[in-house]
Amino acid sequence: MDVNEMELKQTILVVDDNPENIHLLSAILRPHYRVKAAINGALALKLAKGEDKPDLILLDIILPDIDGYEICRQLQLLPETAEIPIIFVSAKSTVADENKGFGLGGVDYITKPVSPGRLLARIATHLKLANQKFHLLSLVQERTKSLEKAHMEIVQCLGRAAEFKDNETGLHVLRMSRYSGVLAQQVTDNDSWSELLFNAASMHDIGKIGVPDNILLKPGKLNSEEWAIMQKHVEYGVNILGLPESDLLILAVEVAQYHHEKWDGTGYPGGISGKHIPLSARIVAIADVFDALTSERPYKAAWSVEKALALIESQSGKHFDPELVLHFQICLPKVLQIKAQYIDLPIKAAAEEWLSSKVLS
């Protein structure tokens, strides 16, 4: 038998404390499968958790250290081994013994002495079922990824829609959402949550879609009545996002609702303060203000990075979480790289740039 043929064969782990039983089972199996053997529970668990995991386990119950029931229970608890089919092979032949084995997650129960034909037929059946289950799971995962990608693109487009209404020649949403992701990574070292916040941050001002253009694009300072209308964009945004069930949109609602709150409690709409403001919103607040300051708007010229940073530092403990301000200073080189990469572009080019940027880097 050549090496390639061996690699194609599936692996059976035989667990039995009797060398004669291992020899007998191995002789039955080796023409059809690769065989590994363990004479005690500790070795069985080690081989089952190893890099070259078995495709199926033949498990005796009476072992010198850990009985087969306990081995099965432990393997079922671990995500990396829970899907390995376990067939109990034992001299214990009562209905209670079988029921216990099935109750712990075994897929089959064969009593000794073993019939070679029955053993091979049972193994073939359970390996086929396991392969079908794995294939179906792969299809589900592929479909889930496709749906998540479509979901993400819709979220990005909605965020971009609000951005074009407010700042039609810029890439504010793309930059500030990336700043948010970088700062989140710096603070939490949690790549998954940072990626989620990067995408959720794009929805922070979705409610501006509902603000009249004469207020949103006014070149001068807003009066008190206009400012009250402008603040309504938070409420509009929360209403647009609704009551979502996905982690992404739940975080987007959190960001939209709280990113205008201030550390000292003087923000809006709730006037909450400190760590009562969700971390996501405190991060987005810094990223949003930094990009707004360093970008040109209808009512102002772009500030220099130095001037914007000085403003953020002066607002530490007032507008912004002081710990996050320190972290923002640490990750400023990455922030400036993003700023240099995504400069304001004409509207068509900006849209193309946005659609080509799908993940946080």
Explain this structure.
With about 350 residues, the chain is of the alpha/beta class. The protein has two domains: about 5-115, Response regulator (Rossmann fold), CATH 3.40.50; about 150-355, Hypothetical protein af1432, CATH 1.10.3210.10. The protein is about 60% helix and about 5% strand. It contains 16 helices and five strands. Strands 2-1-3-4-5 form a five-stranded parallel β-sheet, sandwiched between helices. The radius of gyration is 30 Å and the shape is elongated. Mean pLDDT is about 85; it is low at about 1-5.
How much helix is in the residues?
Answer: 55-70%
Return the structural class.
alpha/beta
Global Rg: 30 Å
Spatial strand sequence of the major β-sheet: 2-1-3-4-5
How would the global form be characterised? elongated
Distance between the termini: 47 Å
Strand/helix succession: HEHEHEHEHEHHHHHHHHHHH
Kindly estimate the percentage of residues that lie in beta strands according to DSSP: 5-15%
The assigned CATH architecture of the largest domain is Orthogonal Bundle
How many domains is the backbone divided into?
A: 2
Number of strands: 5
Low-confidence parts, pLDDT < 50 over ≥5 residues? 1-7
CATH superfamily of the largest domain: Hypothetical protein af1432
Taking the sheet with the most strands, its summary is:
5 strands, parallel
